[in-house]
Amino acid sequence: xxxxxxxxxxxGLAGVTAxxxxxxxxxxxxxxxxxxxxxxxxxxxxCGFDEVSYLLLHGELPSAAELSTWQAExxxxxxxxxxxxxxxxxxxxxAHPMDVLRTGVxxxxxxxxxxxxxxxxxxGREVAVRLLAAMPGMLCFWYHAAHHGxxxxxxxxxxxxxxxxxxxxxxxxxxxLIRQVxxxxxxxxxxxxxxxxxxxxxxxxxTLSDMYSAVTAAIGALRGPLHGGANEAAMALIEQFDSxxxxxxxxxxMLAKKTKIMxxxxxxxxxxxxxxxxxxxxxxxLSEQRAENGDPTPxxxxxxxxxxxxxxxxxxxxxxxxYSASAYHFCGIPTEMFTPIFVLSRVTGWTAxxxxxxxxxxxxxxxxxxVGPPTRNVTPLAERS
Length: 385
Ligand code: COA
Description:
The protein is mainly alpha-helical. The chain folds into 2 domains: 71-227 and 340-359, Citrate Synthase, domain 1 (Orthogonal Bundle); 230-330, CATH 1.10.230.10. The protein contains 16 helices and 3 strands. Helix 11 packs across helix 15 (320-330). The protein is globular and about 75 Å long. The two termini are 22 Å apart. Bound molecules: coenzyme A (COA).
């Protein structure tokens, strides 16, 4: 039932330029990643995530005074309405936390809707800031209510988003190394041009829908293992092995069966993912720290061997998700929280893109090559066999 396509093969929109953006470049000269012109290595070396979230929502890095104001603004928007807390507390323990975030964002959109059709104080930018500030609390409130029957306080006293999340999740003072790894990882996950979830959000925005709807849709797109869910799938792979040799044997079998190895490959990068080296280095450091504390683990060595096998056999490179899995695991983060952490960060990129789409909007509505049956007449029901 297929006829030749009238246009070049654009399956998955691979290689298609679908619009303009000021926000980010991915894979220029094969390897680069920039946010508003700043390279990812530069940002990780010199900035914290809160500076980067400011950059993504304002277009410029903050001065020291602007950063303090920004952090105070976010701290002031962390508390959740009681009705949202009650909704979160009612979500079962075995729900996936991505579904919790999707539901939490949607519920907040009912309680604090965006003023769409009359000019009011809660515009799209205000909703973007509210979501960035409130989502770590949503996730951790549900987690402790569902797993420990405890309604936690959301006032962590931590000025940074990474510290706030780490403290709410662990309900303890976070280790400085863990705080730093989380902060860097939030920078790495913050923005990535027209990736599937961001593009989903831009499509929703292009219909003149509200910010909550666009973010809810983006969370749904991010959940799948070909996108954000790859970090959890990578963890499920590496934790099966107690040695690099066992990992190599199993991965060779998977490749022979043409099974995809999650956390490898990329649609746009062709040589390497510039974010991977940065998170790999943190994973190595955390693994060494574990060994020094008398708790050695083969996970980093297993990951390195899988990396070497994929390079040797398929010339494939790890993307950000692969070493994020072991890094997060070493930070004591439960595996099902890996993709939700991606959301806590990427909401900056999503909302920046939604605001950019609004500023120069045209409905996103592509066409399809029809490959179905030829035009035909309806046979009345009584005459159909
Ligand atoms: N493991 C094994 N083989 C892989 C692979 C992987 N992770 N990623 C790509 N390949 C192979 C494909 O099997 C295919 O080989 P073939 O031409 O012999 O059939 C070729 O590389 C092209 O892959 P394809 O899936 O068509 O590329 P894509 O551009 O459509 O997909 C991804 C890009 C990211 C979806 C893909 O690399 C993938 O599924 N990776 C694993 C999931 C993941 O880590 N996602 C997070 C992305 S940041």
